[in-house]
Amino acid sequence: MQGSVLSGDDRLPKYMRLADSIRTEIALGKRRPGDQIASEAELAMHYDLAPGTVRQAIAILVDERILERQHGKGTFVRHPRFDSSMFRFFRFLGADGLDLEPESRILRRLLLPAPEHVAQALSIDVGADAIFMNRLRLVDSKPVLVEEIWLPLPRFSAFLEIEEREIGPLLYPVYDRECGQIVARAEEYLTAEAAGVEFSSILQIEPSEPVIVIDRIAYAYDDVALEWRRSRGLAKEFNYHASIR
């Protein structure tokens, strides 16, 4: 490895600057999920840092679930796993009692002005053009979830051009493959409400029937907001489990 000068604000501790540098390289695609990170000794030599400084930086990124240590192999950029996370809350079972993966059907996909709550979540201007998508999830042809998804431009311009059959049920691999945008983490907020006229029609339930609402903001490795999503699912299908010690 050729030597390199550590970038960033000189007022910050060196371990924080190193963590920021590695995080930025991952966000820019210079390091990809699954890539192995140089050893702590190599990084210390490359940046002319003490081994303990490097160890602190790596520990931060492991705690943030950006990196993961694999015993006997080394440290790697972690593969994010978020597309199936909705089904921590909603489980759909077939007649045989086995879990079913809902199919996806895109109802709308177009450019629209970003409303205030979306603009705030994505850190874009209110009214700025953004990609809006309505997606329906079905089990045995029965609607079970409806999603509103917003993506900022120009990061996701290519998403508008993709044929629907090429999108499939998992969006985050598509964001990576077609738009070069990798989701590293997400924050979710759960509430409940009556379905209302619009969503009861889509979900084929009564307007007064309760639905669980899950708002999600997905972020890149550098904490840039990539996606705002609101999912509504049937309350009777909702499951929540927490272990508190």
From TrEMBL:
PANTHER family (alphabetical): MANNOSYL-D-GLYCERATE TRANSPORT/METABOLISM SYSTEM REPRESSOR MNGR-RELATED, MANNOSYL-D-GLYCERATE TRANSPORT_METABOLISM SYSTEM REPRESSOR MNGR-RELATED
SMART domains: HTH_GNTR (SM00345), UTRA (SM00866)
UniProt keyword Kinase, yes or no: no
Top-level taxon of origin: Bacteria
UniProt protein name: GntR family transcriptional regulator
Taxonomic lineage: Bacteria, Pseudomonadati, Pseudomonadota, Alphaproteobacteria, Rhodobacterales
InterPro entries: Bact_HTH_transcr_reg, Chorismate_lyase_/UTRA_dom_sf, Tscrpt_reg_HTH_GntR, UTRA, WH-like_DNA-bd_sf, WH_DNA-bd_sf
CDD domains: WHTH_GntR (cd07377)
Pfam families per the UniProt record, alphabetical: GntR, UTRA
HTH gntR-type domain boundaries: 12-80
Gene Ontology MF term list: DNA binding; DNA-binding transcription factor activity
Keywords carried by this UniProt record: DNA-binding, Transcription, Transcription regulation
N-terminal signal peptide: none
Biological processes, Gene Ontology terms: negative regulation of DNA-templated transcription
Claim: Transcription is one of the keywords in the record: yes
